[in-house]
Amino acid sequence: MKKLLTTFSNWRLQHILIVSFVLTTAITVIVGSVITYGVINNYLAGAQDARVGRDMDLADAFYNIKLQDISATAGRLAASKVVAHNVDSASQRDASAIQAIQDQIDNEITSLPVGTQRLIVLTDAQGRCITGRLASMGHSTPIACQTDWSSWPIVASVLSEGESHSATEVFPANTLAVVGLGRQAAIPLTETPKAAPEPFDPREGTAGLGLTSVAPVFSEDGELGGTVLAAHLFNQDYTLVDRIKEVAGVDTVTIFFGDLRVSTNVEDEFGNRAIGTRVSQEVFDHVLVGGEEFTGPAYVVNQWYTTRYQPLYDHTGQIVGMLYVGAKQASFQSLLDSFQREVFRTTVATILLAVLIAIPVSLWISRPFTILAGATRRVAQGDWSVRVPTTGLREMRTQAASFNTMVENLQEAQDQLVQQEKLASVGQLAAGVAHEINNPLGSVLLYADILYKETPDDRQQQREDLQMIIREATRCKAIVNDLLNFSRQNQVLAQTTDLNALLHDLAAQKRKQELYTNVEIVEDLDPALPAIQADPLQLHQTFVNLMDNAAEAMPEGGRLKLRTYSGPTPGLVTVEVQDTGVGISEENMKKLFTPFFTTKPIGRGTGLGLAIIYGIVKMHRGQINVQSEVGKGTVFTITLRQQLAAPAEPSGAGTVQS
Ligand code: ADP
Ligand code: MG
Asked: 0.70 cut: is pTM over it?
């Protein structure tokens, strides 16, 4: 399981999504159909069972009607005046009396429906045969009368009790032979799979099973004069089972003698009635041995049936055979099979449909991940220009937007870091050099000054040369000063600063300077501008540098505008220094803040001004931006925070360290 999950987690997202979609669909559909199949199967099995139950009731009713019919025959004859009047004489073998009774029996037989098989026998009070007839296959024939019928238990019972009995009885083989039914009763036992090893009744195969009714005959003096026996043999007689099948619509009906099929409409594989085969061991144990009804699916002869078996009892209550009804499972099975095929087809179609839907959907879901992964890889390789499209799912759009912002911020931070590192190393170098130069430069200036003062007025040329030395040395000192400033600007000594006042004072100062002779300084200061936390000396230096740059960009004169306002977002203030000077070319724009970048002639510019400004603004956690158009002018925009520290900290925090 764990191994499977590991393999799974190495897959591409799209494939995982497709597999999950399809699995979910497949499991849902399969579980659904299995449950439906189960429900339908149960329902059909229940319906089939109920049907077979009803079939058994019908078969049982028909069976009993047949038994009543036979007992009616026996009863009518036993009660007839002719029989009662002649029974004693007939017992004495009086020919005319026997004839009279025989006529009466023939009468009875003629009144039965054509084709009825019926054995009718009159015995004397000892059970000896007086006369008898066998109606079979449309013929009525006298039987050979040499049998002692008292060997039939049912006859013996009637003789001793004087009461009639009707039941399913075993017909002994020897009697059957005498009355001409021996051939019909003989059913050779066939080898049957699943049957019990031994037959239930050893007489199976030769003896018969049939319905028997025996009624006592009382002579006119009221004494027991004999009995009338009426019987119907089931062996190889299919009238009853076929009638039940046809009239009651029962699929198959069988009458068993013991466990042997003696009358049935179940067919074997050749289409013959399956007599001679025996019931399965399971049913044998249940019904014949256990005396219980058997319900359920059973393998009958050669296929499955939903069945019922119930025991048949003789007049003493002994189990002698079984009555069976069954419905082929094939019809019900074919319904289930076609349902199963349909379900299978639907399942396959649904899964295919799921695959078709899953492919584009999973592609749509996984695409942003793939794009994001690719973008992340490129960023890792140092490509800061990567941006991902903010399309697709809502979560992914947010993710993409965050990623873009993150890359932008990272790039900015990276740029600043590089710039700050550069500045820091340059600053260190500059500080070292500046210190070394400052002292000798002081001496040069001092001695040049002394020399100048000592030089008489008439030595004009010498005085001019000395002045040149002093001027140039002073410039050097200014450069050295700039360098020292540059190296020192890693500390902010913050205090409440009024930017408007600072700019206003600066403007006033600058107007007096020679550089600004042709420059008009315009102040557009927002009177509502809040005071900010900043280092005023550093800001002073910042704006001096910006204004000097602006003035230097306007050698022919022009307008320098100082503008302040609150914003662009709450908590920020902005200062704009705008000139109408020469502007900055596209390629110089990138180098602007690099230390020692200057376009001014040697001796005029140091290229440190903007680098220092950049450092100061960053130290104040602010922003500096330039917009310029060559020939039109330039705007430097500086945005500063009102509060230097984060808002949660106590206000007026002093020093901010980089
Ligand atoms: P410097 O002034 O010593 O040259 P800066 O760092 O102050 O050094 O400026 C660098 C360069 O930026 C200048 O040489 C100039 O080319 C350009 N520059 C700065 N400000 C302006 C401006 N307002 N208008 C045009 N060019 C400017
Ligand atoms: Mg400058």
From this structure: no
